[in-house]
Amino acid sequence: MRSFGISSKRSSVVSEIDMSILLFNGFLLLGFVVATVPDVLVLGSPGATKIMDRDSSVKKCRYGRTYSLLEARCSNLEWHEIPTYLKADIQVLDATGNRVRELTNDSLAPYKSLGFIYLGDNFIQNIEEAAFANQPYLEVLDLTQNGCDNLPKSLFQLPYLRTLYLGRNKLTDSVFKVEVTSPLRMLQLTKNKLTKIPYLGVQPSLLTLNVSDNVIVSISTEDLAPFCSLKDLDLSKNIIKFNAGGCECQTFTAWVKLRQIKMKPDDFYNCTDSPAVDEDCANVQFSNRTYELYNECSAIIQQEVETEKARSAWILVASCVSVFLFVVFVALFCVHKRNRRRRRKQKEQQQLTANNANTELLNSNLTAGNS
Length: 371
Ligand SMILES: *[C@@H]1O[C@H](CO)[C@@H](O)[C@H](O)[C@H]1NC(C)=O
Ligand SMILES: *[C@@H]1O[C@H](CO)[C@@H](O)[C@H](O)[C@H]1NC(C)=O
Ligand SMILES: *[C@@H]1O[C@H](CO)[C@@H](O)[C@H](O)[C@H]1NC(C)=O
Ligand SMILES: *[C@@H]1O[C@H](CO)[C@@H](O)[C@H](O)[C@H]1NC(C)=O
Known about the structure:
The chain is an alpha/beta fold. The protein has 6 helices and 12 strands.
């Protein structure tokens, strides 16, 4: 009885499996038929939109090489999240124009070689703190046109991160209350909600800062002094006002001129809003704090230059020593070879003379015997 029970159970399990396989095959068949029905037939029928949806979900990433980097090209695929099944060793991920809403700690975890991530034009509102924690090689991140009002603090500590596109988001000043150790070169922050220049600490590598189309109300030399390599600054479409009657506008533009920063809008140089006459502000003084910050920044660059010089010097010395050793070695080898050849020749000569002596002896013996 018991055994019967078990076997019946087993058979029911088996039949269940059979059923599911059958069902699965049925679905496959259906899918196949639907997929192979010509579009003309389907167009206009009530199922048409459904089939088109299905087609787009079948769209796949294309892989390619960009400057020898493996790239997954996955733009406009209507993704709601970043899938985990892409090639694990991709170095470039282009997921522009999808519908990703969130980057969790796990979203990018399968991909550990990413240097370039493009996520512009998605719906990202939330990025978890460790979302980029496994991206030690990340150099460029594009989050343009999303809904971010915050960013993970660890993002600003990635060792190679140099370019950040953060335009068209909802970022506020508080996002930048972080320690920035990444070697940022370019920071695009156009169309956000900043009321001042982000305080990033001393940033010796920053070349471009775009804060156009924000709600920045004031600016001073101390905001820019920590960026001692800054070349391009875009302040257009803000609501900056300088204190009437002071020389703040003149001081600021004098600093920008002195540091040779290309600034937009360029009519800032006019300071037409400031009623103070130019003569009053002829001898502008920069604050001590401005110099302090600037010098701190320059000192880092100076130090880097010196380290690099020392490194080059050491490399030069090491190369010279190795070349010298190589020459000595080659010379010794040649001398050794020549000596050996000479010794061998000497030996051969000795042997030859000995042989000659022998043959002479033999000959003389022979002649002696003959006579
Ligand atoms: C994501 O990682 C951060 C930092 O490791 C952690 O504090 C947070 O709880 C994680 N979030 C989730 C949902 O696991
Ligand atoms: C700053 O960004 C805006 C918007 O993308 C762009 O039009 C402008 O040219 C940028 N400024 C600079 C100096 O690159
Ligand atoms: C001063 O500003 C006006 C308009 O604001 C502009 O047309 C003019 O070119 C500016 N002059 C200089 C020297 O920048
Ligand atoms: C700036 O530094 C100079 C010299 O170090 C000092 O005499 C001056 O009082 C300082 N100014 C301010 C505002 O701290």
